[in-house]
């Protein structure tokens, strides 16, 4: 039974003594005002109808109910509220059955928890993921879930934001009955009629008593301590625990009132705004003009050129998506190393009991190693992941041009080289595109799809299709040095270097950025990635570096000593005996002091707030340039790039959303203030100036024209 936008949001029918209430609100049956109103009305009618003995609630289409309508948040709330609807369901004098297929999430699960009996079909997914939006279950979920599944399990479900399968939900006590197959209406009717035949009565979740309150409260205390330690300043998780504590300590009505008050606080929070922005932006990025206009080409077999860390990671990502993968290396030794790199990933999973030897063998059956380009004659798409050198890449593309079948997509995984120039060495630039994976490529979500001038629209559409298959977050980028992410990164890393040379220690900078919400600070990241990588790039660019640009040599001084970071046992930090968390190094501080003295810089004091301001302002100013030049389609594409590939704290929504929330006039004010020290580096982005002059924000540019 699919959804039908021509029909009402709630469709009511009667099958014998059972009133069937079907939610019909594409795409995910979200609980919009029309749905809430329809549900409430249908229930009231069912209660008043002597012919009706039971009520069955189902969803049309692929899901039961995906939750409250997130798009309505922030608008004036129109009655009936979801809490009222849930209370109405629970209070019904006829038995109410929820038949769940697909997602029953957030408010969707809250509707089911208010029903008297719950049936789940095999593909059902049940969860209270509000925490992912900076919220808590606000329609009785924090009060009813603990009564059904136990206090600790319910709190963990809400804090984790993950889904339970139908069987796991039944084991947890959320579901009474599993249907083996069928559609929700027939399975739900069979269950409702069975219950009626047994003389089943309304069974209200609110009436379940929570026993052993002392143990429950002690468990919640332990969860609160753990959450406070792990969640890096997130607001709603601790509020969830407060609500669940209220469920233990207070009568249902009072607990629910507490839940409503704390839900309202979460709804007002900046973190909620950031997380909702992230939710929609991640879905918006795939909507690019080419993906709408063109049909993707075939995508069954792919080839990866190069079996290094990156090539192997890409091969694993493709194998995991069920694709046939050919890996090409130049000689027997290199291809053996490439295969070992692939197998290492699966062996790691086997060691952690997350994969069996048989499953590995099944995956590896789709993998073909080769040292000859001839085997890739028939593949649909090739991803080149060889050494980052334009001449080597051009040679590979000449070879691909010679061997690949007409219409094959030829992609490069370069992270900053000129893809137009690479495409230019082939006779088919319309087939050449950039697919910039992030390391480790089988894990990192971001995929920058870099669109050179001559590529055809269906190749871009194919790249987006590939991203979907690989379950990556695709972001469309234009060609420039570093595309979206690495170009902007280069600028804010420079701001961090200036801060360091001007007086802040790398440890203070890292600490300030961790407090902002990053999992690691920039100097920790350098140590983790290996200082030698950036050093090699700096040496390569030395000849072409603009002499007017301020250049900080501290990192070079550190690299000259072989202090390449974690792998070397020291970098900006010390890692005694292979420690993973570094310690501050007085010798690094002495190097920094010496560099400052050499340049005649007297160190200044920077507060954590000063550090964040400079770091973020540099990021936002460059991001504005990237949007203005069309390298990113919209500000939200920059946001998703940083959320998915650079560890940007999700609750801040991304750099552009962060800037909007600060106020662009304030951000521009900071750029202008800093530009007094260094007008070249802190040159305001014209787009930032324009938006401030027009009283607009970055979000105003998120709508694609046409
Ligand atoms: C809540 O319930 C609060 C309550 O406790 C208390 C209230 C008082 N609303 O993900 P997809 C859109 S908070 C509006 O690609 P899938 C989405 O933007 C909510 N729109 O599909 C997209 O639109 P478009 C708790 C929504 O099949 C389209 O639907 N619930 C909502 O891969 C398809 O989405 C959640 O957090 C929504 N709730 O996955 C669940 N959800 O086509 C959030 C989706 O214009 N949703 N859209 O781009 C999900 O996890 C997934 O969407 C779901 C389907 C698993 C349902």
UniProtKB/TrEMBL annotation:
Catalytic activities: a (3S)-3-hydroxyacyl-CoA + NAD(+) = a 3-oxoacyl-CoA + NADH + H(+)
Statement: the UniProt record of this protein carries the keyword NAD: yes
Tree of life domain: Bacteria
SUPFAM superfamilies, per database record: 6-phosphogluconate dehydrogenase C-terminal domain-like, ClpP/crotonase, NAD(P)-binding Rossmann-fold domains
Coiled-coil intervals: none
Alphabetically ordered keywords of this record: Fatty acid metabolism, Isomerase, Lipid degradation, Lipid metabolism, Lyase, Multifunctional enzyme, NAD, Oxidoreductase, Peroxisome
InterPro entries, alphabetized: 3-OHacyl-CoA_DH_NAD-bd, 3HC_DH_C, 6-PGluconate_DH-like_C_sf, ClpP/crotonase-like_dom_sf, Enoyl-CoA_hyd/isom_CS, Enoyl-CoA_hydra/iso, NAD(P)-bd_dom_sf
Location in or out of the cell: Peroxisome
Domain 3-hydroxyacyl-CoA dehydrogenase NAD binding: 302-477
Known pathway: Lipid metabolism; fatty acid beta-oxidation
Principal location: other
GO terms under biological process: fatty acid beta-oxidation
Signal peptide: none
The keyword Kinase belongs to this UniProt entry's keyword annotation: no
Entry GO MF terms: (3S)-3-hydroxyacyl-CoA dehydrogenase (NAD+) activity; enoyl-CoA hydratase activity; isomerase activity; NAD+ binding
UniProt family annotation: Belongs to the enoyl-CoA hydratase/isomerase family. In the N-terminal section; belongs to the enoyl-CoA hydratase/isomerase family.
PANTHER family, per the entry: 3-HYDROXYACYL-COA DEHYDROGENASE-RELATED, 3-HYDROXYACYL-COA DEHYROGENASE
Identification of the protein by name: 3-hydroxyacyl-CoA dehydrogenase
Taxonomic lineage from the root: Bacteria, Pseudomonadati, Pseudomonadota, Betaproteobacteria, Burkholderiales
């Amino acid at each position: 039974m699919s959804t039908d936008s021509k029909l009402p949001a709630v469709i009511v029918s009667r099958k014998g003594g059972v009133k069937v209430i079907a939610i019909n609100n594409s795409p995910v049956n979200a609980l919009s005002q029309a749905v809430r109103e329809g549900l409430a009305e249908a229930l009231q009618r069912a209660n008043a109808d002597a012919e009706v003995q039971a009520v069955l609630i189902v969803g049309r289409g692929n899901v039961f109910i995906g939750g409250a309508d997130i798009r309505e948040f922030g608008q004036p709330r129109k009655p009936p509220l979801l809490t009222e609807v849930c209370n109405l369901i629970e209070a019904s004098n006829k038995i109410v059955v929820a038949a769940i297929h697909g997602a029953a999430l957030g408010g969707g699960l809250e509707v089911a928890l208010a029903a008297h009996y719950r049936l789940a079909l095999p593909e059902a997914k049940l969860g209270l993921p509000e925490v992912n939006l900076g919220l808590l279950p606000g329609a009785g979920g924090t009060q009813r879930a603990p009564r059904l599944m136990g206090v600790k399990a319910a709190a963990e479900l809400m804090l984790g934001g993950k889904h339970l399968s139908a069987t796991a939900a039944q084991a947890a006590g959320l579901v009474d009955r599993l249907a083996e197959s069928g559609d929700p209406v027939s399975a739900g009717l069979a269950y409702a009629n069975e219950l009626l035949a047994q003389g089943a009565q309304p069974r209200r979740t609110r009436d379940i008593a929570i026993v052993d309150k002392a143990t429950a409260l002690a468990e919640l205390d332990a969860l609160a301590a753990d959450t406070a330690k792990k969640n890096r300043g997130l607001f709603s998780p601790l509020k969830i625990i407060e609500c669940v504590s209220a469920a233990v300590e207070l009568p249902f009505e009072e607990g629910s009132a507490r839940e409503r008050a704390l839900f309202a606080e979460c709804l007002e929070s900046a973190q909620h705004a950031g997380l909702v922005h992230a939710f929609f932006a991640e879905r918006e990025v795939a909507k690019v003009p080419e993906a709408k206009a063109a049909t993707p080409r075939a995508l069954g077999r792919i080839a990866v050129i190069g079996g290094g860390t990156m090539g192997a990671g890409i091969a694993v990502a493709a194998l995991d998506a069920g694709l046939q993968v050919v890996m090409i290396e130049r000689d027997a030794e290199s291809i053996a190393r490439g295969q070992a790199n692939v197998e290492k990933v699966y062996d790691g999973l086997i060691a952690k009991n997350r994969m069996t030897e048989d499953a590995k063998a099944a995956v590896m059956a789709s993998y073909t190693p080769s040292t000859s380009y001839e085997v890739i004659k028939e593949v649909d798409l090739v991803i080149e992941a060889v050494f980052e050198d334009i001449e080597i890449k051009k040679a590979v593309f000449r070879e691909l041009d010679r061997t690949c079948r007409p219409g094959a997509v030829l992609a490069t995984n370069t992270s900053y080289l000129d893809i137009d120039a690479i495409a230019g060495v082939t006779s088919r630039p319309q087939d050449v595109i950039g697919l910039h994976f992030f390391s480790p490529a089988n894990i990192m979500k971001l995929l920058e799809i870099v669109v050179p001038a001559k590529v055809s629209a269906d190749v871009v559409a194919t790249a987006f299709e590939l991203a979907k298959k690989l379950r990556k977050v695709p972001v469309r980028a234009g060609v420039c040095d570093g595309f979206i992410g690495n170009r902007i990164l280069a600028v804010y890393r420079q701001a961090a270097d200036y801060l360091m040379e001007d007086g802040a220690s790398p440890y203070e900078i890292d600490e300030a950025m961790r407090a902002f919400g990053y999992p690691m600070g920039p100097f920790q990241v350098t140590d983790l990635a290996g200082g030698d990588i950036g050093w090699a790039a700096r040496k390569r660019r030395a000849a072409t570096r603009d002499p007017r640009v301020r250049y900080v040599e501290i990192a070079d001084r550190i690299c000259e000593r072989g202090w390449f970071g974690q792998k070397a046992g020291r970098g900006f930090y010390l890692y005694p005996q292979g420690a993973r968390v570094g310690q501050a190094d007085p010798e690094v501080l002495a190097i920094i002091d010496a560099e400052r003295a050499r340049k005649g810089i007297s160190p200044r004091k920077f507060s954590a707030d000063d550090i964040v301001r400079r770091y973020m302002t540099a990021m936002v100013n460059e991001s504005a340039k990237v949007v203005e030049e069309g390298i990113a389609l919209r500000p939200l594409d920059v946001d998703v790039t940083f959320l998915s590939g650079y560890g940007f704290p999700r609750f801040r929504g991304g750099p552009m959303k962060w800037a909007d929330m600060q106020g662009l006039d304030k951000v521009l004010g900071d750029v202008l203030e800093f530009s007094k020290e260094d007008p070249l580096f802190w040159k305001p982005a014209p787009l930032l100036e324009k938006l401030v002059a027009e009283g607009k924000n970055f979000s105003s540019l998120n709508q694609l024209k046409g």
